[in-house]
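As described in the Methods, two query proteins were run sequentially through the folding procedure within a single session, without resetting any intermediate state between them. The first query and its resulting C-alpha cells are shown here.
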Amino acid sequence: MPSSANKSSKKIRLVPATESDVGLILWFIKQLALYEKAPDQVTATEDLLRQNLFGPRPYAEVILAHVTDDSGNEQPAGFALYFHNFSTWVGRPGLYLEDLFVCDEYRGLGIGRMLLEQLAR
C-alpha cells in the first residue's frame, strides 16, 4: 500500500501502521485532541492501542503519512484511523473513517487528500 508524491519539494509517503508505530499513533491521537481543544479526554494508552489495533482481532487500521524534506529527513506528518463496517440494508461492506489528522506544518501539501484517496481504493 505504500505510495508517494512530490509536493513543494517534499516527498510524502503513506504506509500502513505496524505494531512498532503504537507510540506514534498515540502521539497523533493526542495532537488531534489538542487541535480539538480536548486533550484531557484522551484515555487511550499504548497498551490499549497495541491490543486493539494489532492483537488477535484488530478492530481498526491506521495509515501513517511521512514527509521527507530535501535534506532527506523524514518526519511523521499525519494519520488516518479507520475500520470496516457492514450495511445490512445494502448488504455491502463499508469503511468508517474515525480520525484523520495532519500536523499544522504539513497542511496544504495534499496529505489529507492522499490519505482519503488511499482509503477509497
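Immediately afterward, the second query was submitted; its sequence and C-alpha cells are:
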Amino acid sequence: MPNFAGTWKMKSSENFDELLKALGVNAMLRKVAGAAASKPHVEIKQNGEHFYIKTSTTVRTTEVNFLIGEEFNEETVDGRKCKSLATWETENKIYCKQTLLSGNGPKTFWSRELRGDELILTFGADDVVCTRIYVRA
C-alpha cells in the first residue's frame, strides 16, 4: 500500500485560476485565493485506508478525515458543502468524486497520486483541471 503520510510543500501549480473561474469565483476573490494558495502546507496522516489531510494557507485551513470507500462530508475548493467518495483509481492514486448537497454547480472531483517522490494533486470542475505537484518537506 502506498504511503501518503508526511508533510508536503508545493513545487508547481497549473490552472488554479482557471479552476476558480470554472467554479464561478469572482476576479477579486480569485486574486486573494491565488496569493493565499501559492504556498500551501499539507500534512497527511494515513492508517491503512484511513486518511487525515490538513491543508493550511495564509487565509484558511481545511481538514478532512475519510476512509476509502465510505462517503464523507467536505467542501469543494470554493467552499460549498458536498458529499464525497474516495476510491482507489490505481494502486497509487485516490480519486474522489464530490456531490453538492444543495444548489447547482460544475461536477467536481479531486485526486491524489504518489509518483516517485512527488504527490500529484488534481482538482477538477467539469472539464477544467488544476494540477499541483508537491514534494516532501
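The CA atoms of residues 10 and 65 lie 21 Å apart. We note this only descriptively and draw no conclusion about the first query from it.
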